[in-house]
Design brief:
The structure is a homodimer of 533-residue chains. Chain A is α/β, with parallel strands linked by helices and 533 residues long. Chain A contains 17 helices and 14 strands. Chain A has helices spanning 35-48, 62-75, 100-107, 121-128, 132-148, 160-166, 168-180, 197-211, 226-235, 257-267, 281-292, 316-321, 348-357, 366-381, 390-400, 450-462, 514-532, and strands at 16-19, 52-56, 82-88, 112-118, 152-158, 185-190, 215-219, 240-243, 410-420, 426-436, 439-447, 473-481, 492-499, 504-511. In chain A, strands 1-2-3-4-5-6-7-8 form an eight-stranded parallel β-barrel, surrounded by nine helices. In chain A, strands 9-10-11 form a three-stranded antiparallel β-sheet, with helices on one face. Chain A has a three-stranded antiparallel β-sheet with strand order 12-13-14. Chain A is globular, with a radius of gyration of 26 Å. Chains A, B: Residues 15-283 form the Pyruvate carboxyltransferase domain. Chains A, B: It comes from Amycolatopsis acididurans.
């Protein structure tokens, strides 16, 4: 619990890129992160180089409590970012140090705490049912207690803009209560998301002039202006911006981290990420969509697959001559690509780079690189996605470079039978016929679903022959149905995350049949383990 | 070819809500309107009450030529809107009246023509390869020819903002060429979509002051600011706004008609639609998504299904007391609805509210409410999630209130066999045994995956007995693997979205076996359809 400032960004602590995907973003309908998901999200955000990662609300949500506990035990080593715990001020009539929820914030051991406080008099009086003086005491007591305990504290002033319009004095008193008690940043929240940029910028400028406090901004997208409002607030003097990955959040969502960052970097020239960070925006956006199990928005600004795709025949030839006349920025700046039917890996340069990262040298083998680019493009057009499946990509690249394909086994056939019997019981049984170390092996096993049964049968068949097999376990399994309107006859993409206790790796399989797609990913997982030993 | 002004809107011709879904919106990857589609889109836009409908580019696109021909023959009777043909100025070195493309614009017989002209000197010199004087002549010749022929003309100044920043004089000369020749509105286009609201508003204000022309605005969404930029331009003096339905368009898309209109009506108090038009925004948005064959964006501002959905159980009771404290506008204003999401954190208040929304009155049945709350909590702890599955929740609530369970069929058993044969082929086959209308029916079918096969077998068994079955189709199918670290032995949650062409409804199934989970959701979908008739 030492560093409370972002590390490695040119702007240092002068500007805060603050992510709340794991707390406010998780309010989006349909998102439900496991603790492993949360750790993976935090690692990706740190790779990108955001300054602060709000991990959740310890004490209020059991998964969040566990997340902070595992982070504190060393499962989350952050290079750039600082971990933040979110919570509310003490209850009315209590003391901060005796408040259970406030204690839970301390127990989370995050170096920074963001406290939410009501700043709209109507909410204070009607929802909180206290007077303004008590509301301010709740803020100052809690802030000063946490500061005494060694935490850096930010204050989220909930419903600030509506509150300021209704009763500016109350709204400012809440900010003062926080700042005077030691809160480092007071964050103006457009909680209901009803603001427009010109008016919001005016308010931010006014509040800055009246208080001199360090201001943050938190916008919701109910007017479709969350990104615009966030950027306008920065232009008006805010130096701390709260966003979520891909704008995930309640109702219409939050300000999209990638849109906001793209604008700050490309339009305002602010170095809010470490060197090289901006070029990771597209990759990280897609990986975070994968973890949230939400199809990436192909038309998302800056990072969408279509963000720089040109359909207008009108422009086609002119684009070739002078691409920058038809793009608002160079797509490479944010790690994106101009081609129509863009894929993340489509370019030679990025595939070569990725190969180097995976230990496959493609630089000296232009033909292998060409054929790998072609193959990746073809597979991605069929629905494969290697963004979150490095292990499968590595196997593909090794095959293209002519390295021997050392599959530890080959399949003859499998059969899976699912029975929903008349007594209501549901049974899954799988039989595999495989060849391993010169032997033909048949094994049958049951499982609580078709993929589980198949995995069990495969293990039963192979484990006498492959000594390392027992150490490998399936850590996570994700299914994504591709193509919008075709129901159960659509293509299925399966991601399998495996672990041997030391390392974790992810493989992918795509097929119209979910069981076959799973089989492909399961096999890659074992082949990859065999390769690495 | 008489009326050139919008009819029936309080603002009349003083403000133009201009839609270009059929031309610029059709640039979106994946959209391909038939002529019948185009007519249907135009009718819906007219029902909503937009002032101008740009129908396409006659002469350049055969379907557009046909659309205008059929519209002129009386297939499109517009109540509010005026039809607009889009095209470009004459070619360099030609005369307007001899230019084939310009003649095609006349032949389209639309009362208004919007001409696109380059206003960025770099584009004029490098793409058009003429000098600025000739570019201006192309504009003034074409505008004055069309005006002489009785057309009202608007001028789209392409790449205006980039051009103005690079060489303001050239950009202004192009505007002048158009306005002096008789163009009624000069439209400032952010063609590359690189603008931010504060700067864009400043430019609009400046151009208005320097020229006094009637100004329009056309924004692309490459900075995720198209809606914000459009609204900022109106605040800065533009009185003509070009949008597309749901923001469809090239790259990141255009300014969303529904977001822009929502803001103009709800935030700026401008009566840009006929009386009652705003309340049609949600319906028309969804209908236009249907025609475009694109799933509606559930998180779209104002009109998305989740735009007013609240998840935080924390607030549920407060929301019931004072909904406007938690919504930026009354959702009814735009024809939307406040939805309460049932989640783990939910209590009696939100379930009662949800029941009312679904037409199940729990207020007078405290015992049924108690047992429903208990059941929902238990199921959600097991991994069920009703927040996106209203139809399943409705069935559950009806059961708790003692309404008869009128399942149209019962299951005896099913069996699914999946074969990956030694020749590599993968086969899925399902057999169901069901009881329907006193009969025991057995049916077998194949599919390209286990769920598809099961769905096919069930339909085969039931369709002779249930006349409505053929109208029901699976519109979407989602799979979520629950629980973090347990791999393939985890619980699976399946969401099935069904449609009968008029209504859509979503059901949920949870089970360790993905096929059984799918079965549960499929059955709920049919039972719900049977209930509603």
């Amino acid at each position: 619990m030492t560093r409370t400032e972002p590390a490695g960004t040119p702007l240092g602590d002068d500007f805060h890129l603050y992510d709340t995907t794991l707390r406010d973003g998780a309010q989006r309908e349909g998102i439900s992160y496991s603790v492993a998901d949360k750790l993976a999200v935090a690692r990706l955000l740190d790779e990108l180089g955001v300054g602060f990662i709000e991990g959740g609300w310890p004490g209020a949500m059991p998964k969040d409590t566990e997340f902070f506990a595992r982070a504190a035990k060393g499962e989350l080593a952050l290079k750039h970012a600082v971990l933040v715990a979110f919570g509310s001020t003490r209850k009315a009539g209590n003391s901060a140090e005796k408040d259970e929820q406030v204690r839970a914030l301390l127990d989370a051991q995050a170096p920074v705490v963001t406290l939410v406080a009501k700043s709209d008099r109507r909410h204070i009086e009607r929802a909180l049912r206290v007077d303004v003086a008590e509301a301010c005491d709740m803020v100052s007591d809690t802030v000063s207690f946490l500061v005494r305990e060694g935490r850096r504290v930010f204050l989220d002033a909930e419903h600030f803009f509506d509150g300021y319009a209704y009763d500016a004095d109350t709204a400012l008193r809440v900010l003062e209560a926080g700042a005077n008690a030691g809160a480092d940043v007071v964050v103006l929240c457009d909680t209901n998301g009803g603001q427009l940029p010109l008016g919001l910028a005016e308010t931010v400028r006014e509040v800055k002039a009246r208080t001199g406090f360090r201001l943050g901004i938190h916008c919701q997208d109910d007017t479709a202006c969350a990104v615009a409002n966030s950027v306008a607030a920065v232009q008006a003097g805010a130096t701390h911006v709260q966003c979520t990955a891909n704008g995930y959040g309640e109702r219409a969502g939050n300000a999209d981290l990638f849109g906001v960052t793209g604008n700050l970097v490309a339009k305002l020239g602010m170095e809010v990420l470490p060197t090289g960070g901006a070029a990771e925006l597209t990759r990280v956006s897609h990986a975070l969509a994968e973890i949230a199990n939400i199809a990436p928005d192909t038309h998302q600004a800056y990072v969408g697959a279509s963000a720089f795709a040109h359909k207008a025949g009108l422009h086609a030839s002119a684009i070739k001559v002078d691409p920058l006349l038809y793009n608002h920025i160079d797509p490479a700046l944010v790690g994106n690509d101009m081609r129509v039917l863009v894929t993340e890996m489509a370019g030679r340069a990025s595939l070569e780079l990725k190969g180097r990262e995976l230990g496959v040298d493609l630089a000296g083998q232009p033909e292998a690189l060409t054929s790998a680019v072609k193959k990746v493009k073809r597979l991605e057009a069929e629905g494969w996605s290697f963004e979150a499946a490095d292990a499968s990509l590595e196997l593909l690249l090794r095959k293209e470079t002519g390295e021997e394909d050392e599959a530890p086994f080959t399949l003859e056939s499998y059969r899976v039978v699912l029975d929903h019997r008349s007594d209501g019981e549901v049974i899954s049984e799988a039989t595999v016929k495989v060849h391993v170390k010169g032997e033909r092996v048949i094994a049958t096993a049951e499982g609580n679903g078709p993929v589980h049964a198949l995995d069990a049968a495969l293990r039963k068949a192979l484990s006498p022959y492959l000594s390392w097999l027992d150490s490998v376990e399936l850590a996570d399994y994700k299914v994504r149905i591709l193509a919008g309107r075709s129901g159960t006859d659509a293509t299925t993409r399966v991601l399998v995350e495996s672990s041997d206790g030391e390392n974790e790796w992810t493989t992918v399989g795509v097929h119209p049949n979910i069981v076959e797609a799973s089989w492909l990913a399961l096999c890659d997982a074992l082949i990859h383990k065999n390769l690495r030993g």
